[in-house]
Amino acid sequence: MGLVTGGAARSLALAACLVTAAPASGTGGGRRLAALYLQDGRRELTGADLERFPGAGVLWCRRPDGIPQKAAAAWLIGNPSLVLMNAHNFRNRQLEVTRTVADCYFQIAGRNYAFVPDVLELGVEPEARRLHITDDWALLRLAEPAEARPQPIPDPPNLPTGDLTLPVTMVSPAGHENYRGQSSRESCAVRRIDPPSEGAIRRARHDCNDGYGGSGSGLFDEAGRLVAMQSASLSMNQRHAFDIEFHYGSALLIEGRLHEALKAQIRKSDSAVPPQGVPGESR
């Protein structure tokens, strides 16, 4: 997003914040608005889908009155304790704190898991003053390993910058407010990859339907590899034909500083595991 200026930049950054502000599908918010595009190919995730796209989970966060509310998609990735999601779940456009980690938990395979409350790695650089699409990522750790299969950390996608048509499946384990189901998947396409910006990460512009609660959804290629994570969509809940400049979704590719951070977290986790036979080993 670093290459977008003026009103487009403000709209895109603001959209990232609005995704967290509205209730997700199934949370009782009462809003049921149209899909983004004229065609809506979303359908409910099945057990076979969850086998094909492991690690799919949901971030739940407590409202000020203490009631849990579905917030966004999140991914168990690399090992059973590491979770990937959007930074805008915890920071607004100006990087002000909107939630604490302790207010949230991770749900996967029918179970809830608490996070380590003081572990939150954000994609923004220390000197950053705004949240962008390409630094809109966060890594958290679970207080105990999940009993679920994680998504493998993919190699950085070998995709050209510029216009293209890359068939993808957008997997949305938290669903969307403008979709009737609790979760969804849709066959759609990445239509442009912007030049690298924050953290040497590129933005993918796509035509996948989105709605409030859809942030953090995974975009998978035809081989089932995770290539990008949804951040925000322009003109949320306004139904128009896809437009590469004015009406599209934005996802950040799993590359650059994000990919490096994922690998570093796994190395750190591996070094903390005691060797076999050491007293106190967790089994």
Q: What value does the average pLDDT take?
A: 86
Percentage of residues assigned to helices: 10-25%
N/C terminus separation: 44 Å
Q: Give me the strand/helix succession.
A: HHEEEEEEEEEEEEEH
Q: How does the overall form come out from the CA principal axes?
A: globular
The total count of helices amounts to: 3
**CATH structural fold name of the domain at 54-151 and 265-269:** Thrombin, subunit H
Low-confidence parts: 1-32, 277-283
CATH class of the domain at 54-151 and 265-269: Mainly Beta
Proportion of residues in extended strands? 25-35%
| Strand-pairing-aware structural class | alpha+beta
Largest sheet: 7 strands, antiparallel
Alpha-carbon Rg, integer: 18 Å
In short:
With 283 residues, the chain is an alpha+beta fold.
Can you tag this structure with a few keywords?
single chain; 283 residues; alpha+beta; Thrombin, subunit H; 6-stranded antiparallel β-barrel; 14% helix; 27% strand; globular; disordered N terminus; disordered C terminus
Could you characterize what this model shows?
Among the domains are: 54-151 and 265-269, Beta Barrel (Thrombin, subunit H); 162-254, Beta Barrel (Thrombin, subunit H). The N and C termini lie far apart (44 Å). It is α+β, with helices and mostly antiparallel strands. It has a 7-stranded antiparallel sheet with strand order 5-4-1-2-3-7-6. Strands 8-9-10-13-12-11 form a 6-stranded antiparallel β-barrel. Strand 2 (68-76) and strand 3 form a beta hairpin. It has helices at 6-21, 47-52, 256-272, and strands at 56-62, 68-76, 82-85, 104-108, 111-114, 121-122, 138-141, 162-172, 184-193, 203-206, 218-220, 226-233, 249-253. The chain contains 3 helices and 13 strands, in the order ααβββββββββββββα. The protein is globular.
